[in-house]
Amino acid sequence: MNLDAIKKKLESMQKTSNGGSNNNSSNVKRFKPTIGKQTVRVVPFKFNKEFPFTEMKFYYGIGSKKVIASPLNWGEKDPIAEFGKQLRGTNDKENWRLAKKLDPKTRIFAPVIIRGEESEGVQLWEFGKEIYEAFLQMAADEEVGDFSDIMSGRDIKLVTVGPESTGTAYNKTTIAPSMKTSPLSNDSSLIEKWLEEQENPKDMYKPLPFDTIKQALQEWLNPEEDEEFIASDGKLEVAETKEEPKTNYSLSSKPAAKKSKSDQFDDLFEDDDVPF
After folding, report:
1. Distance, CA of 103 to CA of 199 (rounded, Å)
2. What whole-number distance in Å separates Cα of residue 157 and Cα of residue 112?
3. Tens-digit pLDDT profile for residues 25-75
4. pTM of the model
5. 59: which strand partners?
6. What share of the chain is helix, strand, coil (3-state, %, to 5)?
7. Are 34 and 157 spatial neighbours (Cβ–Cβ below 8 Å)?
8. For residues 234 and 253, is the Cβ–Cβ distance under 8 A?
């Protein structure tokens, strides 16, 4: 593990905090902490030996799609991110609030061995920023260091409590390093197997086509088929219905002959120079 890279990632996260799935593979072994205590070992990542964590961005509940993996994960253009950038290019507070709602959520994946379940091989553990930052702080601590080292690393102790303790509908997991260092395994053949037989999280998902994601965004913005966009003077505007307030957004460089809702929405994505 590259500890310098770990420290830089931790610094960037701290600065930031201060200021249907896409072909999700069901064959991949996934680890999900259960209520109580468990012990895991983070394994060096086959696809990036200097950094065992993989960050991916997802959207939830956009249109008819329960989960959308952002194309940015593969260096491709993301219509939702482009739209959010346009919203932030205005001085309208409502647009900024909407842009924040459209920000993708970051999820992190790490290859782990579950102590007591070594026969299951390497499993992928998916978690959020809180656990991620705890891992980075752990690695940046000189008294802990590279907990993924196959010979002198450390097991990670997990404590998970349920909704009755969290006061929410979700469990909460906290992590801490073992006080003692230990090898990943005393069996060198097992270590070799675990280092080789791993899944790349980015291969578990495939980016949806640009137009498919754009359509999901349009459905989310305008759930009623008879709603219309209003565009004038290059600003995002609100169209209100008589039945109930409904927010519709559009960008246009100048007033023009009335277009269909789909045509007006397509106009938002005509600029190919957006840096995504």
Report:
1. 27
2. 12
3. 557 899 999 999 999 999 999 999 999 999 999 999 998 889 999 999 999
4. 0.75
5. 68
6. 30, 20, 45
7. no
8. yes
